[in-house]
Write a structure and sequence with these properties.
Elements: E1 7-10, H1 11-21, E2 26-29, H2 35-44, E3 48-51, H3 55-69, E4 73-77, H4 81-84, H5 87-96, E5 100-106, H6 122-126, E6 132-135, H7 142-154, E7 160-166, H8 167-171, E8 173-176, H9 199-211, E9 215-219, H10 221-226, H11 229-239, E10 243-245, E11 260-263, H12 270-277, E12 281-285, E13 305-310, E14 324-327, H13 330-344, H14 351-367, H15 373-376, H16 385-395, E15 401-404, H17 408-416, E16 426-427, H18 438-448, E17 454-459, H19 460-466, H20 469-476, E18 481-486, H21 491-500, H22 515-521, E19 525-529, H23 535-544, E20 549-554, H24 566-569
Helix pairs in contact: 1-2, 1-7, 3-5, 3-18, 9-13, 11-13, 16-17, 16-23, 18-20
């Protein structure tokens, strides 16, 4: 007998109840010794579980789900090799700052240290790539430790937490009180707390922004995570300040906005880098200033006055010496800035900057973007990647989402595909740069938003790593289009071999398979395009399909995106 409000629950049951209490609606994984959790999912029936065909895909799906919804993404795996298969996807979430809880079963507690089958110190493996990794060694502590996992994943800079559940703990039973199962539901989404800096610091930064002759806003992934897109646009328009983004910050402004410069950095647009270098004041929002984003910390100019806003205080000033730090949530800080401007009636319309931005982006489109003569050529075989990007932009609606993979496809997509609407409609693995991200991420995006169309843009190298997940897409009822730039090579590395090693190509070329046939074998729509004039029709067909669709596009083997050279900065 138990007192009123007390319940006897197994470890698997209480783990699932805690997930429910934090608002988890869907999780991604592959079963093994964690079937006690699966049985609780089945019996309770409140959380949807999506079976993947490889655990790496489960982590990418949890990652994309979190990026789109703002909720904590959840994935699971079995002991040993199942857990270690999560590593790549967990690393991406860690370096990209994505809230995630990764769960894995573990050997029975009394079997540890005996070289048992599939034994590995999972906690030690995950510690370097998570905000917290721990073993849940007592059934009665499951509520406490799972609550800590969700709290840590969503507080400060978000990131993944790894929980290892020994099999005996999952099977053990314990009497739980109602109070012992209560949670703070704020930790089910990010940001859990919108921390703010002192008002006087915000006033000082705002005064500097108003006084600057040539200010610029640099928007990173923290803007998207914070949901601060409207606030950035309002501030930009109020003061006439152009906005440049990192790839993680794409979607801060529609890229056809008159104050949108587009992406900067090593794989961004060289014209934007040159513009950023001329700024006398940089308002940096939610960006870590990585070596790629800043061309090895040279853009913006390190001598430029920089005010950095980031929810993680240890990130502020870490890679750039900043003139003022504003540790806090981007949306909350921008609202404070606008309150200061309203109270002091501060405004500045920098018409000259607006005209300069319009001229820069117009020239870029005609010279190298989707407005170029090459991009418009309808009689090209094989296709140039610019023709692929132009066709995607012409066939996709402004609110359709695009998810890039790692490699040249991400540079083509990030530089040249102009996001038509602010929001969480662009994604890519910019933290860790892992290949195989886009297909599983697009599946999760579709499941989270079944009424929104999503395109996964990938190379044939990355797609081949995860193409088994097409079966997942069919079974789960995901609606997505996969556009493959197929050139029969790992072209990013092949181009390095061309540039740096005298075109001595080794282990970067392989068969250019017809992936449309493979797609059909999985039950998807499969389309093959070898001439530029046929691509838009194929994309319209794919986007209109209720089934997952794969458009295999044969692209030139030697086409490379614009790269910023050392000489352009010297």
């Amino acid at each position: 007998m138990t007192d009123a409000g007390e319940r006897v629950l197994s470890g698997g049951e209480v783990a699932v109840e805690m997930l429910e209490r934090f608002g988890v609606e869907i999780m991604f994984g592959l079963p093994g010794d964690q079937t006690d959790i699966y049985d609780a999912l089945y019996r309770r029936g409140r959380i949807r579980h999506v079976l993947v065909r490889h655990e790496q895909a489960a982590a990418h799906m949890a990652d994309a789900y979190a990026r789109k919804t703002g909720k904590v993404g959840v994935c699971d795996a079995s002991v040993g090799p199942g857990a270690t298969n999560l590593i790549g996807g967990v690393c991406e979430a860690f370096t990209s700052g994505v809230p995630m809880v990764a769960i894995a079963s573990a050997l029975r507690s009394d079997w540890r240290g005996r070289e048992s089958f599939q034994e590995i110190d999972q906690v030690s493996v995950f510690k370097p790539v998570t905000k917290l990794a721990l073993s849940v060694d007592h059934v009665q502590r499951i509520p406490e430790l799972m609550a800590r996992a969700f709290q840590i994943a969503t507080t400060g800079r978000p990131g993944p937490v790894f929980l290892s559940f020994p099999l005996d703990v999952l099977k053990a039973q314990h009497t739980f009180t109602a109070a012992g199962l209560e949670v703070d539901a704020r930790y089910g989404s990010y940001p859990a707390h919108r921390m703010t800096p002192p008002l006087e610091d915000v006033r000082s930064a705002t005064s500097g922004l108003l006084a600057a002759a040539r200010p610029i806003i640099v928007a990173g992934g923290g803007v998207i995570a914070s949901g601060a897109m409207d606030e950035v646009r309002t501030l930009s328009e109020l003061l006439g300040i152009p906005v440049a983004t990192t790839f993680m910050g794409k979607g801060t402004l529609p890229e056809n906005h008159p104050l949108s410069l587009g992406p900067f950095g090593l794989i961004g647009r060289s014209a934007v880098n040159e513009y950023v270098l001329k700024a006398d004041f940089v308002l940096a929002l939610g960006t870590r200033f990585t070596n790629v984003d800043t061309v090895a910390w040279r853009v913006p100019n390190p001598s430029t006055r920089i005010v950095q806003v980031d929810i993680e205080p240890t990130q502020v000033g870490r890679n750039y010496a900043v003139h003022q730090s504003l540790p806090g949530d981007v949306q909350a800080v921008l609202k404070m800035m606008m309150d200061v401007l309203e109270s002091e009636r501060g405004t500045a319309q920098r018409a000259g900057q607006r005209e300069e931005v319009l001229a820069l982006t117009s020239h870029w489109r005609e010279r190298s973007g989707i407005g170029s003569a090459l991009a418009k050529d309808n009689d090209c075989s094989p296709l140039h990647p610019l023709q692929v990007i132009r066709a995607l932009r012409n066939t996709m609606a402004a609110d359709d989402a695009i998810i890039c993979d790692s490699g040249f496809n991400q540079i083509w997509g990030g530089q040249y595909f102009e996001v038509g609407q602010a929001g969480r409609n662009y994604m890519g693995p910019r933290g860790f740069g892992i290949m195989g991200f886009s297909l599983p991420a697009a599946i999760a995006y579709s499941l989270a938003n079944p009424d929104q169309r999503v395109v996964a843009l990938c190379g044939d190298g990355g797609f081949a790593m995860v193409m088994q997940e097409l079966e997942t897409a069919i079974r789960a009822g995901a609606r997505l289009t996969v556009c493959i730039m197929n050139n029969g090579s790992l072209q990013f590395i092949k181009d390095n071999q061309r540039l740096l090693f005298g075109s001595r190509y080794i282990s970067t070329e392989f068969s250019a398979l017809d992936y449309s046939l493979i797609a059909r074998a999985f039950g998807c729509v499969g389309l093959r395009v070898e001439r530029s004039g046929d691509l838009e029709g194929a994309l319209f067909e794919a986007l209109a399909s209720d089934l997952p669709a794969v458009v295999d596009v044969r692209v030139m083997a030697d086409a490379v995106p614009e790269r910023l050279t050392q000489q352009k900065l010297d």
